[in-house]
Each structure stands twice: as C-alpha cells, then as structure tokens.
Amino acid sequence: MRLVWWLPTVVMISAATIFLSEQRALDPVQNLSLTVSAPAAGGLHDAARPVNDFVRGITDRGDITEENRRLREEVEQLQRALALQQDAQQRVRELEDIVEIKQGRPEDQLLAANVIAEDTSGLKRMIAVDRGTGDGLDEGMVVLSRSGSLVGTVSRAYEDFAWVRLITDPDSTVNAQVVPPPSPQPSPASPQPTPTPQPGASPPPTPAPAAPTPSPTPAPSTDESALRGVVEGDLRDELLLDLLPPDHTLPQGSLVSTSGLGGNYPRALLIGSVEAVEQRPQSPFTKATVKPAASLAGLDTVLVLLSFTPARLTEE
Amino acid sequence: MRYVIGALLAGLLAVLQVSVMQYVQVLGVAPDLVLILAASWAVVRGQQEATVVVPLAGFLKDLVTSDPLGTSVLGLAPIVLFAAAIRLRAVDTEFIPTVAVVALGSLTYGIISMTVLAITGQTVIWDQAVTRVLLPACLVNALFTPLVYLPVHAFSGQDRSSAIGTRRLTSPL
User: Which of the residues A12, A21, A120, A164 would you substitute to probe the B interface, choosing the one with the greatest number of B C-beta atoms within 10 Å?
Assistant: First the structure.
C-alpha cells in the first residue's frame, strides 16, 4: 500500500527536478557536486589509465606491432606532406602580404582542460572537464584534442566544470568537407621517396617535425575539389558523413575537415578520415563512415578554442 | 545509520562509474554499479529501506553525470517495485532474484533514460540504443551483480545477526 503513494511521489519529484535542471536552476548544485567529487574522480581516472594501458598492451600485443609499423610509415608520409605544406604556407603568407589580405584566424587561443569524468550510460558520448565559465568557457565552444583535431563542443558549462559533447554523440552535427587525397606529383620542393639506406651512409635529412603548439590541422583544400556534407555521430563510436553529392568518387583515407559553414566551427579543423563509402543507386546522397582522427576513448587532456566564437553564441 | 551507509556506497560507486568504468566495457557497455547497488539493496534489505536508498542512489548518480537531475531517480524507481514483486518468489535465495531485478531494472532504466533524453530535446537513435546499449546492458549488469551484491549481502548478514543477538540478550526468557 505504501508503494502506491511512494511511486507517484517519486515520479512527481523527479519530473520537477528534471524541469528545474533543464531550466538551469540546479546548476550550482551540480557544480558543487562536481567540485566535491572531481578530486576523487580525477585521481581514479588517472590511476585507472595505466592499468588499462597495461591490460590492453597484453591483450592487443600483435595488433600493436602491426600498428606501430603502420604508424611509422604514416609519420614518414606526414613529414613529407608537412614539408610541402610549410613551403605552401610560406608562399601564401608572401602573397597575403602583397595583396594585404586579413587573416581569418591569426592566432588561436587555446585553454587546456583535464578530463575528469566520462558519461558511461552508453546513450551519450560526453566527457567532463575541469574548466568552466569562470575560465572563459561558454556553451558551444569548440574543443580539440592535444594534436588539434576536433573532439566536440562544450555542451553544458558550470562555474568550474563543463560537459563536452563529443563528435561521436548522436546529437553532434558538424558541417564538413572532404578533400580527396592529392595524386602524387613530383615537385621540385618535395623530397623524393626515401631510398633504401646504404650501410654506412648518413641518413637523409628529414624535415623538421611540427611545432609542439597544438594548432588546428588544416586539410589542404580548394573550393573546387572539396565535397561538402554533414558529419553526424551515432552509438557505434564512428562518424557518419552524409549528404555528399552522389556523382563523386570518394577514395578511402580522404581527410574530412570542418567546412566552416554555419559558423559553429572554424574552417579546416581535422575531423577524421573516410573508412568506407556507401553508394546506393536509389539514394540521392552518398554516405561514408569516418574514423575520428582524435582518439576519443580515454582522453585525458583537451584544448578549448577560446578565440573562436561560434555562431550559436553570437546569435543569442 | 544504514541510510548513511547506503548513500555513501552509492556516492562512491557513482564516482567510480564516471572515472573508472569506461575502461571496463564488456559488449561495448560499462556495467552500471549504482543500478546494481540499488537492485541489491532493494532485494536484500527490503522495501522499506529501498524506498529511501534507491532514490538517493539515483540522485547521487545524477549529480556526477551529464543527465538532468532526477533522471536516474525516475529510472531506478521501478527497481523498488520489481524487488517488492519478486519477494513472492519460490526460491530460497536472494541472489537469483537480485540478478533478475538487475536485468529488468536495466531494461526499464534504459527506456526511461531514453525517454527523458528525447523529451528534453536530445537525439535518441532508438534502434541502435536498444541493440547496442539496452540489451547488452541487461546482460553486463547481471554479469557484474556479484561484485556489488556480495558486499551488500555481507553487510546485511552482519546487521541481521546483531539484531538477532540483541533480541536474545533482551529476551524475557
């Protein structure tokens, strides 16, 4: 008999609390609870990571060797691409100086934040970080990984903490562009494929590695070659690239970056690379599965882009 | 005192949930320790305590997750009903009923959470959520039940023997 009254009471109180929470009336309570639990949660999070790495190291040993070999090859390719890009950037700067073009994003102002918690409900992909409105965060701000690729946006900001919606969350939508990988063209500035090193010969000079400053990674693009679409998250921890024009071929490995359309994300932030393409004759659009560039599982530090104001904030 | 212990345990498990359980994923889902605690408490400790501890556990869970406050209180509420219904059981053990309540509770908790998310304007991909989250969560939570059930049962055992002991000491016989 007692339950007859208990259940409606709980339902009513819950409904009222959910309503108040949605109206942001309970933000101080949630901020306080995160303040109390953050040291323990952060400590446990940090302590569990090495254990997890160790266990994964044992279980994935074979995969790691293969991955290591693949990554070495990728680093070599990227170093070549970087050398080309640095040369191109230098030329662009010179040209901009000549025609006095105003730079769109002169210097990105980034704020590092530690990940203290992760939503494990399975229905959302969100992380909590130890920075809030007191540090200059606002809802809608763009969040990057340490290496500068897109991680998500600030979904809910409290005084000292914030929840970040990852790009793999079902609620995440990003206007994107795909740049097919450029066909290899020999250029005078580009180093030729590395020859097999001779015994005793000195190693060929390698281009300097990228500066440690985590600047967003611009994908080389021109408006003519880039295909535009929308990147959406779902519960498979992959991204779905939708609304692509149907008459274009999309090679696997093409880089996907933000297009800047809509004004909620700056242009040319790396999102990921195309893994599989789905083209159906009856479908008006091409779809593709995209693998996020940032490793979204087990993030420990992220960067919040403070200098870019998303359109959704300026509209308010 | 028992409510304080229940609340402390729920708070601890809620913090563990958001900090560590992301690394303990089976079938793509992390076990929900707070839900398992709520179910274990409801079956082992009885309806009277469950009506207080279960909402308290839900509230503490909401405080450290991104859900609107109140979602888990609502989501865990059916567990008290399941536990009450399962008291009319034929078997003389609390473990199997606890596993059943955990599995059923996981299902209703997921459905209620998804409904709240949808009502509050968030995207819910229902088919994926059912196949990739809801059904695996039932299995995984049931699988992890002993981890929380055993301490709760041990605590209750101590509580019961001390209660019996007191009665014996004060018995008029």
Answer: A120
ipTM: 0.85
Q: Tell me, what's the pLDDT at A85?
A: 84
A61-108 pLDDT, tens digit each: 777 878 888 888 888 888 778 878 877 887 887 787 777 665 555 577
Q: d(Cα A138, Cα A304) in Å, to the nearest integer?
A: 10
* Chain B residue with minimum CA distance to A173: B123
A127 to chain B, minimum CA–CA distance in Å?
Answer: 8
What pLDDT does A187 receive?
46
**Rounded-to-integer distance, Cα A270 and Cα A257, Å:** 4
Which pairs from A41-46 meet CB under 8 Å and 24+ separation? A41/A116, A41/A117, A41/A128, A41/B15, A41/B18, A41/B19, A41/B64, A42/A114, A42/A116, A42/A130, A42/B19, A43/B19, A44/B15, A44/B16, A44/B19, A44/B20, A45/A115, A45/A116, A45/A117, A45/A300, A45/B19, A45/B20, A46/A300
Strand partners, A150: A144
Q: Supply the angle between the helices B71-86 and B47-64 in degrees, to the nearest 10.
A: 160
Alpha-carbon A230 to chain mean position: 15
Residue-wise pLDDT for B96-145, tens only, equals 899 999 999 999 999 999 999 999 988 888 998 999 999 999 999 999 99
Structure tokens at A199: 């015994």
How far apart are the C-alpha atoms of B169 and B137, rounded to whole Å? 46
| Nearest residue in B to A50, CA atom | B23
CB A261, CB A176: distance < 8 Å: no
pLDDT in tens, A124-160: 899 999 999 999 999 999 999 988 889 999 999 999 9
Interface of A with B in 126-165 (CB under 8 A): 126, 128, 155-156, 163
